[in-house]
Amino acid sequence: MSRIVSRSALLSAAPLLTALALALPGCTTTPASGAPARTAETRSTQELLDASTPADWRTPDPADTLYMELAGGRVVIELAADFAPEHVANIRTLAREGFWDGLSVYRSQDNFVVQFGDITEDDAPGKPIGGAKAALPAEFDRSAAGLAFHALPDPDGWAAQTGFVDGFPAARDARTGRAWLAHCYGTLGAGRDMAADSSNGTELYVVIGQSPRQLDRNITIVGRVLQGMELLSVLPRGSGPLGFYEDPAQRTPIRAIRLASEVPAAQRTPIEVLRTDTPLFDAVVESRRNRRDDWYLQPAGHIDLCNIGVPVRLAP
User: Fold this and answer.
1) How many CB atoms lie within 10 A of CB 293?
2) Quick check: is 5 in a domain?
3) What is the pLDDT of residues 52-91, one digit of tens each?
4) Backbone angles phi, psi at 142, to 5 degrees
């Protein structure tokens, strides 16, 4: 079984991409107090979201949505099929066959990641993977052609340009024509050993700390957590090397990981995600670059990719 790191190799996780910060033209509200209406340029993030329309939101495809069921509740994950199609296909198969059911979160490294899957010794047989492929190609990046890349206005220390693709934080380089997903808080990746193509999607990790962007293009990102990060980020930290639990009793059992498309409609989480290709999202980005809240005295005038959380809500 592959690990996010082999016992001797270290893993990291990092930020997400955002959108080009433009103002919403002619969008105003009328405060109940009778004070002058506030334009999009002066409204807070919450005011912008309160004024959103149904067209500003999207519903993730149930075939690309995972439900990770823990004792504390459900973690909702969106898969990145456009960036890691072979990994996502394997993950769909594994979920349908109940591969992760009864396994556990066996690693929690402070300011880094939690990791889950089939914890076995390197020379011990693991859980059968059924119809899934035993080996997959590295899917660290892809051609930028055809991607609806929504760029951020600020420079990035890790990439020529950063932004969002359908809600996923990403980066691209015009010189090479390549694009890739970024390691931000909540990123879901597929662990591997030393060989670039040694992952099969059975061992997964979620970034719970400061974005380790040095992992970008060194490991396959397969998705991101939309809801339920609080169930993962508070898990007790492992005392072993790299945060592995030394006592198996410390592991967090996984009741099930299922595709939303395999769950009856009445049992699904009716989640919506703010679209990242709209003027509203541009205004939301700008509201985070230069905070409008009364508490802030000095606007930053800059924002990092991984500091832009894409808003998620339950469908009204």
Assistant:
1) 9
2) no
3) 999 999 999 999 999 999 999 999 999 999 999 999 999 9
4) -155, 170
